[in-house]
Design goal:
Low-confidence stretches: 29-34, 36-61
Distance between the termini: 35 Å
Mean pLDDT: 75
Number of domains: 1
Largest sheet: none
Shape: globular
Number of helices: 12
Radius of gyration: 22 Å
């Protein structure tokens, strides 16, 4: 029953992570295929298209990622009514409405590094060009990382690597050789300005908290119940500090708020579980005996 049920903490962390990252995901929609596509010869000098238009060469691989993201979104919204009730009853200070331009900025920054990561990983010459500019800009020669939706917390690696490669990424996205031909192939759509980089830099420490917690649990041979509650306490306290930090962009604080609602949902169930209480009581008993 509910009193003896123990939820996998790693899965809880993944749900918290997905709730945070949903704030930076565009709406998933299928684009209708044109009946009479424009020949490549005519598309060479075509005007720039919307920067979120998909690259036809990447559609097949992106389908899997889109399906995975859709599944994650469905999972989080499965008990949407319950989450909304928790949100309404939350004692946290409401953020109010976020300006549309800031919502778009957060999504734009995240999607740009996701796309440039996909491009670099799939195209060897581009990865080599990135390495060349790393040397030119006197930064460590590193490869760009691709987001893998089926692997937990990969966005920390993507954002962390992008920030380390900032100078090189800025350089290659401006190169004329990567900004001719088919509009969807042009890298200038993925150029990140100072506002984009500021969003990523502010988001990185929050992603790292979840990344470190997941690694701690994943690498433990025998994760113990008494280890989980202190970790949830630390995670909850750290996320609350980020949520209350008025120096952070509103779009990030909204993402943290989403994460906190999911964490609260599962954290509150600890109070009704005999397994959690027994584990903590046993730990306290041992501490009193040996300390």
């Amino acid at each position: 029953g509910h009193q003896t049920q123990v939820r996998c903490f790693a899965h809880i962390l993944n749900l918290v992570y997905m709730a945070l990252c949903q704030q930076f995901e565009p709406l998933l929609r299928k684009k209708p295929k044109p009946k009479d596509p424009t020949p490549l010869s005519l598309a060479v000098d075509a005007p720039d298209v919307d920067e979120w238009e998909d690259d036809p060469e990447e559609d097949e691989l992106d389908e899997v990622e889109a399906e995975t993201l859709q599944a994650a979104e469905t999972l989080l919204q499965k008990k949407n009514t319950e989450l909304e009730l928790l949100w309404a009853q939350s004692a946290r200070v409401p953020l109010g409405d976020i300006p549309v331009e800031q919502e778009l900025l957060g999504c734009s920054a995240m999607q740009k590094i996701i796309k440039i990561g996909q491009r670099c990983v799939r195209k060897g010459p581009l990865q080599k060009k990135l390495a060349y500019y790393c040397g030119l800009k006197n930064i460590p020669v590193l490869k760009m990382v691709k987001r893998v939706p089926t692997r937990w917390n990969t966005m920390y690696n993507v954002v962390d690597r992008a920030l380390k490669l900032r100078k090189a990424l800025d350089a290659i996205t401006k190169l004329p050789e990567y900004n001719t031909g088919c509009p969807t192939q042009r890298l200038k759509h993925f150029f990140l300005d100072d506002a984009d980089w500021a969003i990523l830099a502010a988001l990185l420490p929050i992603l790292k908290i979840l990344y470190d917690a997941t690694n701690r649990i994943s690498t433990s041979q025998y994760p113990m119940l008494h280890e989980v509650i202190p970790m949830m306490d630390i995670l909850n306290r750290t996320l609350e500090e980020s949520f209350n930090d008025e120096t952070l962009p509103l779009v990030i604080r909204r993402g943290v708020q989403r994460a906190l609602v999911v964490l609260d949902k599962y954290y509150s169930k600890v109070d009704y579980s005999l397994m959690w209480k027994t584990a903590m009581c046993a730990l306290l008993s041992l501490l009193k005996r040996f300390l």
